[in-house]
Amino acid sequence: MDIKKFLSESRAVSPVIGVILMVAITVILAAVIGTFVLGLGDQVGDTAPQASFSFDYDDDSNILTITHESGDAIPFERLSVSENSDASVTDETTGDANSDDNMNAGDTIAVDFGSDLSDGDEVRLVWTSESGSNSATLQTYTR
What we know:
By secondary structure, the chain is α+β, with helices and mostly antiparallel strands. The chain is about 20% helix and about 40% strand. The chain has 2 domains: about 40 residues; about 90 residues, Sandwich (Immunoglobulin-like).
């Protein structure tokens, strides 16, 4: 047997590599198509923003000021305030320092309550996705 000819023969290498690459491409393509067919692809962009907020409640005027401390810029229309108290929200005022319709670091929302918040009352800052299918509580203030 000729050893030199045996070691230099490489005709079978290309078809094996070709088959492996085709199988890998098929598996990846099936995973991507399956993700979107099952509707999981729509939820990728609906993740809640990451931001930090501080709260300051004024007992005299019954106004809770929510300040964006740091994190992602969030469109004001995606934010809402929810409370579980007898004191209902009478007015929400956005203090947009940048005038770009986003709540950026340093921007505030002033929430005016009709009466005093009691001890144990919770006020939540809630984000809702553009499609309306997802929502998340970004931060909670407890009196």
